[in-house]
């Protein structure tokens, strides 16, 4: 039989990114949390955490975390069916991994009715759309939005739609670096803006123009800051159309070389045994995302 006090300690250490914060979240001392982790490892005969900063789950630790995520959701279903089991707990908290551009555009409007109707609060973990699934694989989240189609074992993947990105810059930046008659090669010399090390959108755009190789770029891990840098004439970059409709309409941002847009497919991943709550969130997303995302599946040419 599982000892869920031990499993909850493991989940808290990973979710809170450390023993100190896990202890505060559980209302325990740091020593007590450490002892529970050690006891769990003694019973299993192998480590469940890598003592890094922050602590990372081992392979068996990930499996246990995935189990805990699903048990929490199933317990909520049972409490709804047997009200006597409700101990006056706080609203259910769901941990979701998603890309910053979704969070800054369509996500809030899509999930607000679900959160209100079901008394749910959300923990958002921001990851690039190409790597967000790693959070679910690590057992840190119950679901994620990412650009990877293939689901994990025990999970489902649902195509939500595609976000359309365009390569944009300010008119002043275009005049300075990409004057009329300049070849596409000038983009390799003009500074770009990249969200982070995992962001490959600028690379994909350059490849669509037949350009390869290194290029100068700013790093800006903020969707809002990304647009601010574009408006400040600091570089060019790929931005969701949804985020800059007003700037495009006013001419504050313009297309770079009229290159093709990049359509990034987004998939909703969730555990098969996630209970009614995840199933209802999945239905809500299915009903609503068509207002913001493009229905055609896969990247555009």
From TrEMBL:
Limits of the HTH lysR-type domain: 2-58
Pfam families: HTH_1, LysR_substrate
Domain of life of the source: Bacteria
PROSITE patterns in UniProt: HTH_LYSR
Transcription regulation keyword on record: yes
Keyword vocabulary terms for this entry: DNA-binding, Transcription, Transcription regulation
Keyword match rRNA processing: no
GO molecular function: DNA binding; DNA-binding transcription factor activity
NCBIfam families attached to this UniProt entry: argP, PRK03635.1, PRK13348.1
Family: Belongs to the LysR transcriptional regulatory family.
Name listed for the protein in its UniProt record: Transcriptional regulator ArgP
């Amino acid at each position: 039989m599982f000892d869920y006090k031990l499993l909850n300690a493991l989940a808290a250490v990973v979710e809170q990114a450390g023993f100190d914060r896990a202890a505060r979240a559980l209302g325990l001392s740091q020593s007590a949390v450490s002892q529970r982790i050690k006891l769990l490892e003694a019973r299993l005969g192998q480590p469940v955490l890598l003592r890094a900063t922050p602590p990372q789950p081992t392979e068996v630790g990930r499996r246990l975390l995935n189990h805990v995520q699903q048990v929490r959701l199933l317990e909520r279903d049972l409490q709804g069916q047997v009200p006597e089991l409700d101990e006056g707990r706080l609203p259910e908290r769901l941990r979701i991994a998603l890309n910053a551009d979704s969070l800054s555009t369509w996500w809030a409007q899509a999930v607000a009715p679900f959160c209100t109707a079901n008394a749910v609060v959300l923990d958002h973990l921001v990851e690039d759309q190409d790597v967000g699934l790693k959070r679910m694989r690590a057992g840190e989240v119950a679901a994620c939005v990412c650009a990877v189609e293939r689901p994990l074992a025990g999970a489902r993947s649902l195509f939500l739609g595609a976000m359309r990105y365009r390569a944009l810059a300010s008119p002043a930046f275009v005049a300075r670096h990409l004057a009329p008659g300049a070849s596409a090669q000038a983009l390799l010399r003009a500074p770009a803006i990249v969200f982070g090390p995992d962001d490959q959108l600028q690379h994909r755009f350059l490849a669509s123009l037949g350009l390869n190789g290194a290029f100068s770029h700013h790093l800006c891990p903020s969707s809002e800051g990304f647009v601010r840098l574009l408006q400040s004439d600091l570089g060019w970059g790929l931005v969701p159309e949804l985020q800059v409709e007003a700037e495009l309409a006013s001419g504050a941002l313009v297309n770079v070389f009229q290159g093709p847009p990049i359509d990034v497919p987004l998939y909703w991943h969730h555990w098969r045994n996630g209970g009614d709550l995840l199933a209802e969130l999945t239905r809500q997303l299915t009903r609503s995302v068509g207002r913001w995302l493009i229905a055609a599946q896969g990247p555009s040419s």
